[in-house]
Amino acid sequence: MKIAMVGSGYVGLVSGACFADFGHEVVCIDKDQSKIDRLHDGIMPIYEPGLDALVAGNVEAGRLSFTTSLAEGIKGASAIFIAVGTPSRRGDGHADLTFVHQVAREIGQNLANDAVVVTKSTVPVGTGDEVERIIADSGTRHRVAVVSNPEFLREGAAIGDFKRPDRIVIGTEDTFGREVMSEVYRPLFLNESPILFTSRRTSELIKYAANAFLATKITFINEMADLCEKVGADVQDVARGIGMDGRIGPKFLHAGPGYGGSCFPKDTLALLKTAEDYDSPVRIVEAVVKVNDSRKRAMGRKVLDALGGMEAGRGKKVALLGLTFKPNTDDMRDSPAIAVAQMLTDAGVEVAAYDPEGMEQARPLMPGVAMTDNPYAAIEDADAVVIVTEWDAFRALDFERIKTLAKAPVLVDLRNIYQPEDMQTRGFKYISIGRS
Hints:
Elements: E1 2-6, H1 10-21, E2 25-29, H2 33-40, H3 51-60, E3 64-67, H4 70-74, E4 79-82, H5 98-110, E5 115-119, H6 127-137, E6 144-148, H7 158-163, E7 168-171, H8 175-184, H9 186-190, E8 195-198, H10 200-231, H11 235-243, H12 264-277, H13 283-306, H14 310-313, E9 317-321, H15 336-346, E10 350-354, H16 359-362, E11 370-371, H17 375-379, E12 384-387, H18 399-405, E13 410-413, H19 420-425, E14 429-431
């Protein structure tokens, strides 16, 4: 089957490469000529483990290609996926559907055969209805079914998530759409991956509801961590204790500096706006968004407290280890490190930082921060070392070397990757999350 993937960003490129690996013929389409040129040269526009090899192998096999021409790319395609960005709209927080609508219009104007048009982008409830209307109004005479097929890919583990998914959600009431999508995902169905067929609007809401629930779990354990610090409990044991309950589960119960990334911040906000439009408020999600925003600033205050307070911190130096919102990605969107760095620089603290993959993306977002070539260069002459992102590279730091480089043996571990007793033995003042 020929598949066209409109949008060659994170979702589109990963999905397109994986579909090609299943044996489909896939064309990835993007208007950014420089991105397409780099892909032709084997240069990935994003960092995702294993993606470069997956793309290269399928390009070599002739199953994966790239173009800037939508008309050419969708010709003969049975399934056309829309995988363009839907960022939060400035001013009101609604998902910006400009690119989705634009692609729908171009598909309608250039369609040369019957096809299923699939919204892979994360979109508010009712977007599929609008996409269907736009395509119909474009004057196409070909049969078109508009389907919702949300993605559930974790950055840093996207290829595995695509090939071994918890579930595949397909929203359609159209027999043609169901038949084509069943063929698209036949390789996964043979591997017994569960496929859930729903109405289109239900499918659209599933994506937002899933992300809002996961964001709620993160925010809940972060508030429990604050309580643990007050009462002298250990949040990691609390998380284990409640996570062993099968109704709760252990995932997304890791206390830290708050959630960030490309999905949770914008999707929770978009869900709030949808609920507001339909006069059906979601108070829990409202609280989650507010608590998470304040959480990031609270982490900056935690670092200042480790320096002796705001006044004492002025003129001191802090080393930030990890800048991306999570490890194994170069994504800086809504990363807690941005808020932490901003609070520190506003307080007159000198900040040096290192991240294995995210520094190029971080530079324009953190203009007052000095980027270094390695963690120890950032640590030199620092009054405190702060672990913001739990990259594997920070799990076995040379603490004897740190003690010789830093002005003071102070470690603020915002990801709890070290043990308090071990750090005390090493002679460090150690501050973590939700632990004494």
